[in-house]
Write a structure and sequence with these properties.
This protein is an alpha+beta fold. It has helices at residues 8-34, 37-53, 60-70, 97-102, 146-149, 151-193, 208-261, 270-310, 321-339, 357-373, 405-410, 429-439; strands spanning 75-80, 86-89, 104-110, 113-118, 124-133, 136-145, 317-320, 343-347, 352-355, 381-388, 391-399, 443-448, 452-460. Helix 1 (8-34) packs antiparallel against helix 6 (151-193) and helix 6 runs parallel beside helix 7 (208-261). The longest helix has 54 residues, at 208-261. The mean pLDDT is 76.
Length: 463
């Protein structure tokens, strides 16, 4: 049979109960260790001596009433004459004057009073005070049996038993109350794990449990946003892929139809076939572009997912970012020249940072590639790298009509294109640029610049 693990409230209950019990034992030990019988006898004797001095003022009726009230448990008070005979009240059996003197264990002497600790069958304390009543000498005797002397034991043990019961109830109540928010937290996490991100924990109070509840709610909100973003990303990717596949299928259908229609049957059809070959070449080029776009889209989507999972697992190393920028800038000069777009460069030398060379290469490549796509042949592109304070600033500026605020805000979103259908692309270029920059602790901004659009990348310098 599998042994059940103790629950949290069981542990809280046990710890709180043991804490209370240990505290009680400590208090008991401290009480017994500091208990002073001499101090108690002295204090009691002084009080009773003062009482006996006023004996003349107390009537017999009042004194009898006092005797009845005082007689609780094993306590007694009575009056004796000089011969030791009881004249009022009731002495405890065996507490006569003669018996007392034979069994003295400890004697305390005061003015007009004597306190004796007796060794009898039931050890007792007797305080005898010499006074006067009706102008005749008389002794006031007070007696505590041992059970009264140590009644603090009984009272304390009763209190301990009562506190044990109270501790059990309080520990049970507090443990249940403390563990309830944690049980709710557990249930919430299980609900989130099942895929339901709509529930939220109550954030009442200022204690640690409330902080954990807030943290879990923040986590749930973040997961919800990521799930929405993932669904949107998958929907956009599916749409873009369907478009590529549809265009590719259309090209293949056209090529297939042309091949069947224009199958060579005579020499007279040679010119028609030649024209068909030219058209087929155009469709083949279109198909290649669609396949390349589809391949790039899949690769970019996989890279985006990889960047989401990397978090702080970036393999950063010292990198000559100036040299990397020159390499990427040099690769793109040939491509821009074919389009008739000048690519200007202003790259400072010997600028280093901590980063992943492959990812930063992809970042620079995407920025320049995006600028080339959206620059007309009569425009130009300028790429620069400068050091400002504690960061490196790489900026790519290309001639382009100003973009709206909405376009500037959405340019780094996945599958967003400012000019839909104008150029081929997956819509993931600047999205990956932003992802890679954030992974390196940097940021990306897009802004309008007097007939141009500037993409600015800021990356922190190593400390």
């Amino acid at each position: 049979m599998k042994q059940k693990k103790p629950k949290l409230w069981h542990k809280i209950f046990l710890y709180s109960f043991l804490t209370i019990m240990i505290t009680q034992v400590f208090i008991l030990g401290w009480y017994l260790f500091t208990y002073d019988i001499d101090l108690r006898v002295n204090t009691t004797a002084e009080y009773l001596i003062e009482l006996a001095r006023n004996l003349e003022k107390i009537s017999d009726t009042e004194f009898e009433q006092f005797i009845k009230v005082y007689r609780v448990g094993n306590r007694r008070v009575w009056l004796e004459d000089p011969d030791g005979q009881v004249v009022m009240g009731e002495a405890w059996p065996g507490m006569t004057a003669g018996v007392r003197e034979k069994n003295v264990s400890k004697r305390y002497e005061y003015q007009d009073a004597t306190a004796l600790v007796l060794k009898t069958a039931e050890p007792s304390l007797v305080i005898k005070i010499n006074s006067f009543r009706n102008q005749r000498p008389i002794s006031v005797c007070f007696n505590w049996q041992r059970s009264t002397l140590v009644q603090h034991w009984g009272v304390f043990l009763q209190g301990v038993l009562g506190l044990i019961g109270l501790s059990l109830m309080l520990s049970l109540f507090t443990s249940k109350r403390i563990s309830k928010p944690l049980q709710d937290l557990r249930n919430q996490v299980l609900i989130v794990a099942s895929g339901d991100l709509s529930l939220r924990l109550p954030e009442t109070g200022e204690d640690e449990v409330a902080d954990v509840s807030k943290a879990v709610n923040i986590l749930t909100d973040s997961l919800s946003k990521h799930m929405i973003g993932m669904r949107q990303l998958m929907a956009n990717m599916s749409h873009e892929m369907r478009s590529c596949v549809a265009n590719l299928s259309m090209c293949l259908e056209i090529l297939s139809g042309q091949y069947k229609t224009n199958a060579p049957s005579s020499k007279a059809a040679d010119s028609t076939i030649a024209t068909s070959v030219i058209n087929s070449s155009d469709h083949l080029n279109q198909a290649r572009l669609e396949v390349q776009l589809l391949e790039n889209m899949v690769a970019s989507g996989l890279l985006g997912g990889k960047l989401d999972l990397m978090h702080e697992e970036l393999e950063a190393a010292p990198l000559d970012f100036s040299s990397l920028c020159r390499q990427v800038w040099g690769r793109h000069r040939h491509r821009t020249a074919l389009k008739g777009v000048p690519l200007n460069g202003d790259i400072d030398t010997d600028l280093w940072l901590m980063g992943d060379e492959i990812l930063l290469d992809r970042l620079l490549d995407n920025v320049l590639d995006n600028a080339l796509k959206y620059t007309e042949p009569d425009g130009q592109i300028t790429f620069s790298l400068k050091a400002h304070l504690n960061e490196l600033v790489a900026e790519c500026i290309n001639t382009h009509p100003p973009l709206s605020e909405e376009q500037l805000t959405n340019l780094c979103l996945p599958y967003y294109r400012a000019e839909e259908g104008r150029v081929y692309g997956s819509g993931l270029g600047l999205y990956l640029v932003k992802k890679i920059a954030l992974l390196h602790g940097g940021k990306v901004t897009v802004s309008n610049r007097r007939g141009c659009v500037a993409v600015t990348i800021s990356l922190p310098l190593p400390n």
